[in-house]
Description:
Shape: globular
Order of helices and strands: HHEHEHEHEHEEHEHEHHHHEHHEEH
CATH architecture: Alpha-Beta Complex
CATH topology: Amidase signature (AS) enzymes
Number of helices: 15
Largest sheet: 11 strands, mixed
Amino acid sequence: MTEEFAYKSLTELRKLLDDKSVSSVELTQYFLSRIKSLDKDLNSFITVAEKEALEQAKIADDFISSPGENPFLCGIPYAAKDMFLTKGIRTTAASKILDQYIPPYDATIISKLKNEKAVLLGKTNQDQFAHGSSGESSAYGFTLNPWDKTRMPAGSSSGSGASVAAGFSPYALGTDTGGSIRGPAAICGVTGYKPTYGRNSRYGVISMASSMDTQGFLCLSVEDAAHITEYISGQDEKDATTGPVEVPKYHKNLSADLKGIKIGVPKEYFMEGMEPEVEQRVREAIKQIEDLGAEIIEVSLPNTHYGQMVYAIICPSEVSSNLAKYDGIRFGHTTKEAKDLMEVYTKSRAEGFGDEAKRRIMTGTYVLSAGYYDAYYKRAQKIRRLLVNEFAEVFKQVDVLLTPTQPNVAPKSGIAQNDPIFAYIADRLVVNANLAGLPAISVPCGFARPTDGDTPSMDGLPVGLQIIGPQWGEQKIFNVGYAYQQVTEWHKKHPEVSSGQ
Length: 501
């Protein structure tokens, strides 16, 4: 199938629509056709909203044909992780307990995009309730990596990462609680952004761990990311955690001039067990950024290695609370085998939740119990405060931090299924930004050969560079990523996707 529109930037698509070179309906039909013919192997979508997408595209075309300036995202298709509530379109969180759930309202971010006349193609696959870093805990089957279908795309925003990498959608919404956008971005060779906690509204997004949940997206470039961020950010009266901070014109303030910019490289992020070629690609990217005029400073974040342990306590604790409402009574799956009320609760939850959700519920309930709250949860929160303070001190010395996003390239599919701690290990370079509420972005920085043998090509598999900024420091991370992408072509490399490959 042709790649006529598959990998065009948002600016290019905007121009084509404004010039009437293509209509939104034609553009939407193109992406729907690409999904239909090529996603059978990748399984990146749970629900394709063909009817609704074409209706939205028609509305966008009518708007474009009327006098006046068109909103930047008007008529451009996108996809959304199946954690975002979409009015009238099934939302499952990749769990059987919500298999037939049709939300009566839209998430705030979906509403904002709908107001811009953007076109929703469908809902992407993910780890069940976003619990995982592989996409393998989905109740609707694995999503596979477009670069090599024997490998995972990472998670939990697995379908969003694969859909953008495969050219099924120009951008795709995701959620990031412990690296769930940046991980797939790195592994799938695309750009993935998580905001400062409170930059975007969580209203209408199914909760995982509320003190760390953030809503961002995966796309093709930092320039695209700067545009999208302007339209989905801002304070929301329906979400008290959103901050009263003005949303800048990020794309207008993009700058490739890094002279005078101080960039920290934390030594703890180049940890033992990192694949050698991954470290090499990241260090090459850091050198290129230094050549652009930035000052590179080695810094230390000694509490880094505690992050994954703190996350492994706080995350299940909040999960156990957030999943309590799925009881077989109010909404979601209800068992047909219950003899009494207690069996409605126990059997509905047993039938509806997958193994990973059950593990996190049990772990979180244990940690929050009267005998263990002080020993585990309270202590983890104290260490979290140390991490927050440590980042704050480092950002007094530097503007942003550069680190690897993942310590490896895409692992083989299937290895996470029988390894309950896979997610916590895979996310050890990304969880600290969530614990501290910091903005971060992952950009492609080259290819590396996996250490497990089979290499899909001479070039290997994608590697990601993570850029972390201070709170509300989105412009800083965008500028560094933008400058890097002005002198490199890694973000323009795409897999060859074909049916039955």
